[in-house]
C-alpha cells in the first residue's frame, strides 16, 4: 500500500530549509540524501521514512517537527486513545490518503469517496494558505492540481462531473497562488478557466468567485475598465449565492467610484445593500470559507472610501479586520485593507 502523504510535510520541509537560507543542493550535501529525493519530499510526491524525517530534523535543528508529520509504517494505522495514529494523523486522514493514492493509480475506478478525498486535500491546501507563504505552498498545490487534471482526463463513470468541479476549484486556487507569486497573466488565465468550467457545471458561486478574483487582480494592476467588467460579471453570474452577489456588487461599486462614476457607484452600492438583509445568517460555500457577513465589511469600506465617506470606510474596515480569525490576521492579502484603513482614518 502506498504510504499516505501529509500535505503539510513538503511545505514544512521547504519552509524550514529556506528559513536557514539553504538550497536543496546544500541540504542534500549535509544530509547525504539526493537532491531529487528531497525535491520529491518538498513537492508532496513522496513521504520520507521516519528515519529520514528524523535525520532531516537533526540536520535542520528543528526538534522533531518533520518526524511528527511522518507515520511509522511498522505501527500501522492503529489509533492511539486520543484518536491519532502514531505519526500524528487521524484514521480518517489515512483513509483519505489511501483513496487519493488509489484514484491516482486507477482513475477509471473513480468513486464518490475518492472525489471527496481529492477535494479534501485541496481544502487542506487552501487552509494552509492562511499560514504558509505562496512560494512554499506552490510546489505542493501545483503538483496536486496536475494530478487532478490527469485523473479527471482518464476517469469514467457518474462521479466524473464532481471531480471536474474539484478541478475548477483547484484552478482558482493555483491561480490565486500564481497571483501571489507575481505571475499575473497565468493567474488571470486560470481564474477565467475556473469560472468557465464552474458555470458549465452549474456551480454559480465558484464561477462568481473566480470572476471576482479576476477583478481584484485587475485592481492590483490598475486596469480599472477590466476591474469594472469582471466585478459586474461576477455580480450577475447565474446561480451565484447571495454572499457572492453582495461581495461582487460592493466591489463593482468600488470599481465604478475609482473609474470616476460616483452615480453608478451609488447605484451599485444601493443594489448590493438591498441584498444584505436576505444574507443574514447565510453560510459561505465550502470553497469560499472566508466569505462571511463580516468579510463584506472590506468591500463596503473600500466603496465608502472612494465615495468620500471616510468615517464609514474606517468603521467598516476596522470591523472587518477585527473580525478576522487569528490565522488570517497577518496574511499578505490583509495589507490592502490595512492600508485603506490608514487612508480612511487620515481623511476622517
Q: Mind sketching the topology for me?
A:
Blueprint: H1 7-19, H2 24-31, H3 35-42, H4 50-60, H5 91-105, H6 112-128, H7 134-154, H8 160-180, H9 184-200, H10 204-220, H11 224-235, H12 242-258, H13 262-273, H14 297-306, H15 310-322, H16 335-347
Helix pairs in contact: 1-7, 5-6, 6-7, 6-8, 7-8, 8-9, 8-10, 9-10, 10-11, 10-12, 11-12, 12-13, 12-14, 14-15, 14-16, 15-16
Strand % is: under 5%
| Unreliable sequence segments | 1-5, 72-89
Q: In which range does the helix fraction lie?
A: 55-70%
Radius of gyration from CA coordinates:
22 Å
Helical/strand content category: mainly alpha
Number of strands: 0
Overall 3D geometry? globular
Mean pLDDT: 86
Task: Encode the helix/strand succession as letters.
Answer: HHHHHHHHHHHHHHHH
The biggest sheet, with number of strands, parallel, antiparallel or mixed sense and barrel status, is: none
The DSSP helix count reads 16
Distance between the termini: 63 Å
Protein name: Helix-turn-helix domain-containing protein
Organism: Promicromonospora aerolata
Pfam family, one: HTH_31
Domain HTH cro/C1-type: 13-69
